[in-house]
User: Fold this.
Amino acid sequence: MNISKNLKASFLLSTVLFASCGIINNYSSRNWHGGDVGGHNYASFDEMNGRQDFKLLNPAAGDFSLKYTGDITEGELHLVIKQGRNIIVNRDVTGSVRDSVRISDGGNPDVKISVTGKHARGKYDITYPTSK
Assistant:
């Protein structure tokens, strides 16, 4: 009998802990379709809540253009592009956005991108040249 009570208590505690982690992290998505391959990061979604971080995979050497588009029909989407400690892009993406930014090697080709959604619906697409 004690084992059954302990098992129930453990299950209840686990459920509460998992539920609270979901609330703290506030990450969820519905109908997410996307990918992250060298030269291309993209996603479409019915709802995005949370943040996706990624690093450019095998970017071209030297200076290059990084192109990004976004079509957000609901909610908020925020885009941050960093190179080392330098913030290159820090903007909200609402409606339709099509833009590009020049990435200078400058001895630090490490480029990271963060996309954060709050009840966002739509899609984004980021492309850049890769080394061959």
Observations:
- Residues 9-25 have pLDDT under 50 and may be disordered.
- Strands lie at 28-30, 33-37, 40-55, 64-83, 86-103, 111-127.
